[in-house]
Amino acid sequence: MTQQSCGQRWRHRRRWALFAAVAPVLLLSRHPKLSFTATQSTLPLRRSVLVRCQPGTQPSTIDAGLAAKLQAAKERVAQAKEAVKLFRTELCGRSFLSPEINRPLLTEIFITFVPKSAAAMREPILDKALADLIPDMRRDVEALVALVGSMAAARLPHEPAWQLMADVVAKECRAASARQLTAFAWAFATAGEPRQDLWDSLKAAMAGKLAELSPDEQVTFAWSCAEVNQHARDLFGDASAVAAPAASAQMLEAIQALPGEVLTDQVPIRLVPGVLTEEQGQALIRLADDAQLWSQSSRRGARDAEGEDALRTSSSAVLSAPSMFGNPAVQAVRTWASKLLRVPEDFVEALQLVRYRQGQQYSTHVDWGRPQDASLWLGGQRTATALIYLNSLPDGCGGETSFDRLGVTVRPKAGAALVWPNVNASGHPQELVEHRALPVLCDTTKYALNVWIREKALPTYVGRA
Ligand SMILES: O=C(O)CCC(=O)C(=O)O
């Protein structure tokens, strides 16, 4: 591990002290919720501060709405000050893969600085902080690791910051250890950064450090490269799409033992009623709505058993933020899946909601991954799927889940889980379970929840970040 010298540490502290001093001012002047004089938010910073200080520009009476805004502003400034203090402490001489670091905290701190609603505020703060900080950090690999790791965990959307970090890391990563290279790779993969020069540098540096690499780091590094289509085949080959036979056979037994309706004799597919209440379903949808998580469903890896591309027109929302794991409805689903399917909870992927409006569908596809699927590196193959319907669809409104090779079609019924294995007893991907979501025909919306079970534990920093 690269240690920071005392001088370096103090330079960081000075930078962060400066950052601490400007952040509250920037927060006050730029946060959209605080724009209580009409012109301020559009003025450049200096001017806006001046306007704020001129006598007579403040309203003489403070109504309840304004008082609430001021109170929120005070809280936000206090929060930001605290965040800067904590961030500085966390950055000093620790690593994001090391057990001591409080990564959720770093993540929350970044989220504090980059609320989605405050685009205007985030850029000046970050540009200033990073432009000040990064040149000093160039040779401090450990601090770069912590910074880029928390940027990734917070899903920092600020492109110039990522480009700045990519420039620095591509140049400096030769000095990094195998663990630090892994941390860089994870962060850039999580951010979806495909820059060739960066990945060439990371892989070249790693080629000289393979002897230092732990098994966990190896899978993380291999996953990261594959995730942005920069497969490290020269270093590690391809991931295996065949699950361990023991885990696969156990999963088949667990599904066979589930309560509920047996839908076919060829493969154990069960329809288990009453897994979630309607209130729990609504709570999950609200979670995605409130956090504005819905986006066009990914078509990456969406193929049928023959490898033909699938058509997918729905929207999805992945409940992967650290704070969402504490939500009672999320927890209820994870506990149910873990108990009934007899796997530890960390075999369960982050829950994925799907939403189909009228006309939307997902054509024939399989849920298991092929060897080039990056996620196979992390938790191995998907051994099972539980699809929980969050609302019912009336007869004639489409939206059924159909396994055409098995002649099974299921109409969505609120709270019921449709469960099937994705592998056979020897661990090979099961082609018979290719399935599709038929188009919704009425003026209504179908909501469902994908609960995917892996063959082994998913690293928490990937599944939960
Ligand atoms: O919505 C459905 O009925 C099926 C969903 C599905 O197969 C998926 O999201 O992978």
Automatic annotation (TrEMBL):
Domain (Fe2OG dioxygenase): give its ranges.
Answer: 346-455
| Gene Ontology cellular component terms for the protein in this record | endoplasmic reticulum
**InterPro entries (alphabetical):** Oxoglu/Fe-dep_dioxygenase_dom, P4HA-like, Pro_4_hyd_alph, Pro_4_hyd_alph_FE2OG_OXY
Keywords on record:
Dioxygenase, Iron, Metal-binding, Oxidoreductase
Names of required cofactors: L-ascorbate
- Give one GO term, molecular function aspect: iron ion binding
One Pfam family name from the record? 2OG-FeII_Oxy_3
Write down the PANTHER family for this protein, in alphabetical order: PROLYL 4-HYDROXYLASE ALPHA SUBUNIT (PTHR10869), TRANSMEMBRANE PROLYL 4-HYDROXYLASE (PTHR10869:SF246)
Record's protein name: P4HA1 protein
| Taxonomic lineage from the root | Eukaryota, Sar, Alveolata, Dinophyceae, Suessiales
